Amino acid sequence: QVQLVESGGGLVQAGGSLRLSCAASGRTFSSYTIGWFRQPPGKERDPVAHMSRSGGAPYYTNSVKGRFTISRDNANNTVYLLMNSLKPDDTAVYYCAAGLATYDYWGQGTQVTVSS
Fold it and tell me: Which end of the chain is flanked by fewer CB atoms within 10 Å, N or C?
């Protein structure tokens, strides 16, 4: 069992930056693929970025490429999402997730609001 707790969300002006953190419990965290998802108001939850357990080339959805960076610190069981050049369209609840073949574990989400 893995528990995930996100933090770092908040209110920021357009063009600003935030770094989200996702602290994971469990001794096998390094074995999991990890990802960040977001759910804008009234919309479905969509993937933002993910990184395999080997830490290879990460995936980013097109709308965040060049602005967001996903990283993981397996020694400290933590996943990060650095978000630069934020836009109002980035406003959403952000979730981290972890799993092997599928995302079996989810955090509770952290709100990110970008004002224009």
Answer: N
